[in-house]
Give the backbone structure.
Amino acid sequence: MTFLDERIWTLFKRHWRQTLTYWSAFFSFGLCIAFLGPTVLDLRCQTQSTLQEITWVFFSQQFFLLVGSSLGGLFKKTLPSSLLALFCCTLIISLVFAGIPLCNHVLLLSVAMAIAGLAMGVIDTIANLQLVKLYQKDSAIFLQALHFFIGLGALVSPLVADPFLAEDSCVLGANWTANSSSSSPSDLQHLRSSLAGHGVAIGNISQYPLHTDGVVVTRVSYAFWIMALINLPVPAAVLALMYHERLLSCSDNSQRLIDRDSLSSTSPSPTGDSGQGHGSLFGCCNPAKLRGHPASFFILHAVGGAILFITDGIVGSYAGFVYTYAVSPPLLMGHKTAGCLDSTFWASITVGRLAFIYLSYRYTSPRLLAFSLV
């Protein structure tokens, strides 16, 4: 049995431009979601803020990611609006990366992270919805590949940032020479790794005296500029897809490809859906549409949503917890060895998603979910 049957391969060849574009957009998502943990101490120095203040940027990013995911549904009805939103959001991520070094106050940094979170949320919703529209019942394998690119971006981001992170105090105060021993590199490494993910163990780090006034000597700006350049091909790919679909004013004035494709979507689907969406933002909650469904229908969706939120929260929380556990008794790992665990975790996520591209093709979703949860 081949890795993919001829029907799946034919579908991919028919939609390869759109598919690769949506996959690359999720690379932007991953690139943006993983950089904050390892760079937060250098960003604290850049903004000359306290640790309690800088951790608000985590909340800012995550809250507006939730908002962006909700707003992304507004662009689902037509391909032109979806691609335009996708282009703007992927470009915004590059602009945010380029602008972060200019944020010299924690409030400005929080606003930048809010904008990035909003863009990430829109990318998340649009890419998932458009792939499901393209492949419908065969979308599972392509969605697995889509989420593989989150892991790939999340793996690249810390690797780019690592060479530019401060080894010692990155704010030199007037009395730095006398107190330099109070902030050793190992202390800073412990703080940085403890803050990885969503800011775990913040209540126990106030014992480390870190300067907020003085000369800032961090070089983390270079990391953000490199990530901005790495991300630039993504909006370029979206722009190329818009040109191919003849959605730009400079494109050929012949009939748009989407107009021809939309002819088939107007006919009723096997499930009776006309393909025109729900009609309004909250159309899916229409009591008339929900009437007649058994109780198991609602239980299934509630449990599925709970699993999604819990497992997604575990990803961020575990990334911060694993280092603290490793350096504490009984393991007492060295700081460098323990620091590799976070990178190993993201690498494992990437490999797991790559493996599930094949597994989702061979096995049913309930069986894969049960195995993964166990």
In short: DSSP finds 18 helices and two strands in the chain. The chain has a mean pLDDT of 74. The radius of gyration is 23 Å.
